[in-house]
Amino acid sequence: AQRVTQPEKLLSVFKGAPVELKCNYSYSGSPELFWYVQYSRQRLQLLLRHISRESIKGFTADLNKGETSFHLKKPFAQEEDSAMYYCALISGNQGGKLIFGQGTELSVKP
Amino acid sequence: ETGVTQSPTHLIKTRGQQVTLRCSSQSGHNTVSWYQQALGQGPQFIFQYYREEENGRGNFPPRFSGLQFPNYSSELNVNALELDDSALYLCASSSLLGLGYTFGSGTRLTVV
Hints:
heterodimer, A: three-stranded antiparallel sheet, globular, B: seven-stranded mixed sheet
């Protein structure tokens, strides 16, 4: 079964601390993985995708096929990073639907 | 107007009623997907339309149906509403299947 698991519902860190939001997936084949972010009272928006290997707002994520993980990392958290983060993969079986994890709320304290 | 717009933003319906939610996709996007997000959960895929035809469906009963129009806007219809249908309904559009979906702000549906 295709599935995305985010084991932490809430992650609380202090400003300047490193952040790692965990994401594990189950998928047969080569997955396309994404991180979406939802700031307070704003719509869900794409943060980054693994195929572009980019860094957005200081966040990076590396696909580890051996561990079936796609953890999101940032070396120094900022207060404005506080938001809901969703890991998702594209399922090619049904026209490219996104399969989301349950989300992790990141709270960065001053 | 760029971006994905959804209407209405909030809606309260009675169990057993029918509801229609609307979505205008981002300019240039020809693929529209609908998601249901229950409180505290990640979005769940309902179905997707590409060039006015359904080309993928999640685990939702037939009382969830949709349409896509020639201008690529879309509707989600839900018949015989149940209390568990209460959720945030998200619309997302894309210009290429599976890449870079743009989400709307959603419609908050409450079934009482």
